[in-house]
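user: can you give me the structure for this one chain? tokens are fine.
assistant: on it. calling the predictor now.
[tool input]
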Amino acid sequence: MSKLCLVEDDAIMGESLCDRFELEGFDVDWFQNAPEALEAIGRLSYGLVISDIRMPGMSGEQLFEQVLERYAQRPPFLFITGYGAIDKAVLLLKMGAADYITKPFDLDQLVQKVRELTAAGATPDEAAPALGICPTMRHIEESLPHLAQRANTILLTGESGVGKEHVARLIHHYGSGDAAPFVAVNCGALTESLLEAELFGYEKGAFTGAMRTKKGVFELAHGGTLLLDEIGEMPLAMQVRLLRAIQERTVVRVGGEQPIRVELRLICATNRDLKCMAEQGQFREDLYYRVNVIHLRIPPLRERKEDVLWFARRFLQEFTAAHPGEGKVLHPDAERAMLDYPWPGNIRELRHALERACILTRGEILMPQDLFEGAIEEPVPAPLPGEPACDELGQYMRACERAYILRALDGHQWQIGNTATYLGISRKNLWEKMKKYAIQADTVEDDE
């Protein structure tokens, strides 16, 4: 597993992060000042540098600039920043930093980011995940090479947009290689007569308009993989011919008589419950058992929240690569909104939302209202007692501070001492701010 370089001047925070990373299996070098870290980065091979931005002496920003200037081979940087320093983090991203995370952060979220970034820079034998980082998708991905070498018939189920075709292409890659043919056909997009010709091909003169002989997708996929997408939409009459083709691995073209032998891997995909359809007579039971040899269910995005931001950052990287100089980053509020949203259209909807936001948003930071059509911007908070009613900027800044303090309290189980230490202020100062912002202290523990 990758070796980490942690640059954190706060002793409590540094020790806590080291303990967690080591529990997760990482080897960690912890430095409490940037100059020592700079020297170590030049000597050692780190998979990732995790650095606070604000530190006494040399800041995290200056450390990054020095690394860029001195070293041709440099590890990716993940910056830890406060809510009020997001603009600086965005600037660092434009300079080449990998990502940033804002305080207060959830440790699980940080570990997720670290795993993602170290995987992205891994050696070939530690390939980066292609399907997601949640345990379910990692288990599926790890099983694909084995299945691809042994299974000739695989059924993929899952809601529309979860990535069934992407899984099918990975199976093809592991089993046949990219040089072999991969052919996909949507069974629900064609009429019965067109579907028959598409699947099995036709001979010249087989019907009006058949001016030449045409191979079907079974023949075209010979030696590779055939994906029958939306097989649950296939008419019952066509299912009979499909069953014979699957069982015998032979096809007969429309208007032809000669059986044609085909050798291929068959992958069927559907967003419907084929077993239930078979019980109701809407899908042939014998065909169901024939295609349901190996069954992989691809869960919807709402069941794998860990993958939401992982996919989001990949899509943003793709956009930046396609449009240099127009890089976008997600505001923490946008990340939280994305995690709260159920994504009924799954990964396809997520990609489209980010693509739309990148095209329409002029700034570099994507806010919740940029991602979700019809989203309502938060109203400017009411002024505190004694504030001028027209001081909108001041009101907004104070609202941000109040929200930041609330998140810090939540992250430290509402313990005053720990929260104050984390925020870098005294207990008295924290109590005063809580009183100022009307933060209820009923559940607060003074851990002095």
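assistant: here you go. The first strand starts at residue 3 and ends at 7. Residues 392-411 form the longest helix (20 residues).
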